[in-house]
Amino acid sequence: MKRLITAIAASLLALLPLACRQAAAGPGPPETVRPIWTVPTPPDAIWADFDASGNVYVLDYDEQKVTKLAPDGRRIGELGTRGKEPGSLSKSRRFAYVEGRLYFANEGNGRIEVLGTSGEVFPPIALAAVTRPGELYFANQNFYVTRRFASNGGSFVYAYDRRWTPRGELRRASPSSESIDHLSSLNTVCTAPDGLWLVYLVQNRIEKVAWDGKVLLETNRELDDRWPFRKDEKGRVIPEILVHRACAVDAAGNLYVVYSNPENWKRGNDVYKFGPDGRLLQKAFTLPILNTTMMRFDREGNFFFSDGKTLTKARIERTSRQ
Amino acid sequence: MTTTRGGFTTWVVAVLIVAAVASEVVLLRKNRALQKRVAAAQSMSADLRDLRLRTDRSAFEVALLGRCRPFGQPAQLAAARPLDVAIYFSVDHDCSSCLEETITVWNEAAKALPANVTVRGYTEIDGTMMQKALDDMKPAFPVTSIPHFSRQLQQAGVALTPVVVVSDPTSGRILMTHAAVSWEKNDRAFVERVRAAATPCR
Fold first, then answer.
1. Could you tell me if the ipTM is greater than 0.90?
2. Is the Cβ of B146 closer than 8 Å to some Cβ of chain A?
3. In this structure, are residues A194 and A276 in contact, taking their beta carbons and an 8 Å threshold?
4. Which residues of A, range 47-66, sit inside 8 Å of B by Cβ?
5. Could you tell me which residues come within 8 angstroms of residue A316 by beta carbon, excluding any fewer than 6 positions away?
């Protein structure tokens, strides 16, 4: 009997490091990405949006063209072209599908471009406050237009109603005496059920703001420190500035953000998950591509991601621990 | 007692000998390390001298291109030679002061150079905002927009812009190149070389 107890105790002790490692891996359940289909896209797919029928519109940054895909991934059309004339796009990174029309942040031409789902050209919209619209989102029955850079205290996010009547400046860059903050850069935005997640690159900060612009929460380096990133001898996270390349919010409000791999900057496929309260939950999964150019959830909870050359539709599955 | 004192003296002498040998060894090692460093520094200095010689030599060789030889008449007086000057630049990516400087210098040059020299700019004008930025720089020479210009330049092995390429319009061969830096005097010296290349030798 004594031998048996000793053997059990020894086995438990042997399993202790494994249990500790499992606990350190994060409190949430492990997740896996199960691809449904993968299709080749033009060389630089940067954004996708969906219509009510589940068709997928994929914007190519290089060619400034939109490829229309059926819900099963079949290519069923193409619209948009690069140029300066009305109906043409230049340096567009984001667009939003709203009631049968596609609204593009046409940064190179300094306006909002409006196209129909078959490429019909509607009059463009000039915004007095945003001469170079960087990104555009539609959420909470409003349009949100962002600028990529804002000088000290300048505005990043502007809200407009459905008729493009200004609803105010949603988020200003914080006035700061720190030289690094004088030209703040807003990397990207993700719409959540209760507000917008703003992902800043240079400041290595993620903010969540309500529809009225009130800052609900913000993460900073301290939050990053909770995750066991590799650190240098001075205790700084390696790399010093983690490159957030893409983000997506699921129906529950969880934020998925791609970080550069700390040991290989060229690899941007590690996806970290933040809860709706901004708490870093876990490293969710590693995508089966090297560089993620975009991630999105559609209305049915399907997860889309791209490395520019391909677009994959997938489901995120939570697996129980072994 | 005597034996003890004798033993102590021997011990002290032995310790002193060991200390002297040890310090000698340390000194020798330091000396060797120092010699290695001096040798490395001398080798580095020689490498630098060699590099500078080679840089000076290529700069000298390039500076002679397009000029008239100082001695010996040309076999026949050639007619004024046509030259194409192409300025490759990127409104988005080039340092704005370098680009403004280049455009200013070649605006002046385009007016003053012989008629057989044609100056053209090549870039990608992507969108009305970039067109406005280019218009603000007021180039006095025609600028052609080429789609995916940066990518095409990279494929042709041109890694740096703004760059000025002088070529023979008949053969299409590049005769001189000049990667502009934000240094007006340097740019003007290059314009003089183009003028020299376009003027027949006498």
1. no
2. no
3. yes
4. 62
5. A31, A32, A33, A34, A250, A284, A285, A303
